């Protein structure tokens, strides 16, 4: 590592997902105004609105849009309006 370009204030920080109260303890330089006690140890806390434990994409609750099916449905519905030579 190059000297003088990396932050010096790495410390253990709790990232707390506010939607499901999931807590992740990791090293970070993120600024924090509040503290939280976890297992008898006080850490700075950074509050998150959403994380991988609550995001619909990562939890499998995301609805996928079938755009190919929509295009096929449109083409079938309006096929008689299109000139066959142009398609």
Put the structure in a nutshell.
The chain is α+β, with helices and mostly antiparallel strands and 87 residues long. It has 2 helices and 4 strands, in the order ββββαα.
Report what the structure shows.
The mean pLDDT is 79. 17% of the residues lie in helices and 30% in strands. It is elongated. Strands 2-1-4-3 form a four-stranded mixed β-sheet, with no helix packed on it. It has one domain. The protein is of the alpha+beta class. The chain has helices at residues 56-59, 67-77, and strands spanning 11-17, 23-28, 34-38, 41-48.
Question: What are the SSEs and their pairings?
Answer:
Layout: E1 11-17, E2 23-28, E3 34-38, E4 41-48, H1 56-59, H2 67-77
Parallel strand pairs: 1-4
Antiparallel strand pairs: 1-2, 3-4
Question: Key terms for this structure?
Answer:
2 helices; alpha+beta; four-stranded mixed sheet; 87 residues; single chain
Radius of gyration: 25 Å
Taking the alpha carbons of the first and last residues, their distance comes to 58 Å
Strand content: 25-35%
Give the integer mean of the pLDDT values. 79
Count every beta strand, where a strand is a DSSP E run of 2 or more residues: 4
